[in-house]
């Protein structure tokens, strides 16, 4: 019997990008849970502005084509899908302000916004799929935290798009009130333009004073995350 030698290149499925699908939702449905909501947030890393969460219950018969992790989509495509999601799905949105973030912490503020979004759905969810490591406490239904959920669950992907577009629009409006920081360009992330604005004008009421470099010392959260498109 001829032995096969191991390949000298990595397996393709180890490096191929994830594509969200409806399998987790159907698994929950098979277990007796329906409808299933996907939930995600946008804005954990910025130096300014709220963290925004969205919860989405998709209609299996009217799922918009091209749903994906919001970070994998262009701004124009996100806007197009945002409109389609709102027209075909049950959607709820909630946010936690920079004040709330400073009073608690970014994790608690994010989970609280996600909880409020889920609990405010016009159609109560029987089960929830959330992006990340945590299911928000205080829900009226069971849930499952899904690592890289926005790349695995199409419902979470839809929520990521709604949260991202909503927050970007909020920060564009904030730019009209606080034009010295360039919020419309970077949505509050720690770009060179934003840091220069803080250096010249000082922080405004939208800034998260518990985040470095706004918080003096070494015990504030780091914010050197990749800046999304």
Automatic annotation (TrEMBL):
Coiled coil: none
InterPro entries according to UniProt: RNase_HII, RNase_HII/HIII, RNase_HII/HIII_dom, RNaseH-like_sf, RNaseH_sf
GO biological-process terms attached to the record: DNA replication, removal of RNA primer; mismatch repair
Classification lineage: Bacteria, Pseudomonadati, Pseudomonadota, Alphaproteobacteria, Hyphomicrobiales
Region Disordered, residue ranges: 209-229
GO cellular component: cytoplasm; ribonuclease H2 complex
Cofactor needs: Mg(2+); Mn(2+)
Pfam family, one: RNase_HII
Gene3D superfamilies: Ribonuclease H-like superfamily/Ribonuclease H (3.30.420.10)
Keywords of the record: Cytoplasm, Endonuclease, Hydrolase, Manganese, Metal-binding, Nuclease
GO molecular function: manganese ion binding; RNA binding; RNA-DNA hybrid ribonuclease activity
Record's protein name: Ribonuclease HII
Annotated cofactor note: Manganese or magnesium. Binds 1 divalent metal ion per monomer in the absence of substrate. May bind a second metal ion after substrate binding.
SUPFAM superfamilies: Ribonuclease H-like (SSF53098)
Species the sequence originates in: Rhizobium fabae
Major localisation: cytoplasm
Compartment(s) where it occurs, according to its Swiss-Prot or TrEMBL record: Cytoplasm
Catalytic activity: Endonucleolytic cleavage to 5'-phosphomonoester
Domain RNase H type-2: 34-223
Bias kind Acidic residues: ranges: 220-229
TM regions (residue ranges): none
Protein purpose: Endonuclease that specifically degrades the RNA of RNA-DNA hybrids.
The protein's Enzyme Commission number: 3.1.26.4
Binding site for a divalent metal cation: 40-41, 131
């Amino acid at each position: 019997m001829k032995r096969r030698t191991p390949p000298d290149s990595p397996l393709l499925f180890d490096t191929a990008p994830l594509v969200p699908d409806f399998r987790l939702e159907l698994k929950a449905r098979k277990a007796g849970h329906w409808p299933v909501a996907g939930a995600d947030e946008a804005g954990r890393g910025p130096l300014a502005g709220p963290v925004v969460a969205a919860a989405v219950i998709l209609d299996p018969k009217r799922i918009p084509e091209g749903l994906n992790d919001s970070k994998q989509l262009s701004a124009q495509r996100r806007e197009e899908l945002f409109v389609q999601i709102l027209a075909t799905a049950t959607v709820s949105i909630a946010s936690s302000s920079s004040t709330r973030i400073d009073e608690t912490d970014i994790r608690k503020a994010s989970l609280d916004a996600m909880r409020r979004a889920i609990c405010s759905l016009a159609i109560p969810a029987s089960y929830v799929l959330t992006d990340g490591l945590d299911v928000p406490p205080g829900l009226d239904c069971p849930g499952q935290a899904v690592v890289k959920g926005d790349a695995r669950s199409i419902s979470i992907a839809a929520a990521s798009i709604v949260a991202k577009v909503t927050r970007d629009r909020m920060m564009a409006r904030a730019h009209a009130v606080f034009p010295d920081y360039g919020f419309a360009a970077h949505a509050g992330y720690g770009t060179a333009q934003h840091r220069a604005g803080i250096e010249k004008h000082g922080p405004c009421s939208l800034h998260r004073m518990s985040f470095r470099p706004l918080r003096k010392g070494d015990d504030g959260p780091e914010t050197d995350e990749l800046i999304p498109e």
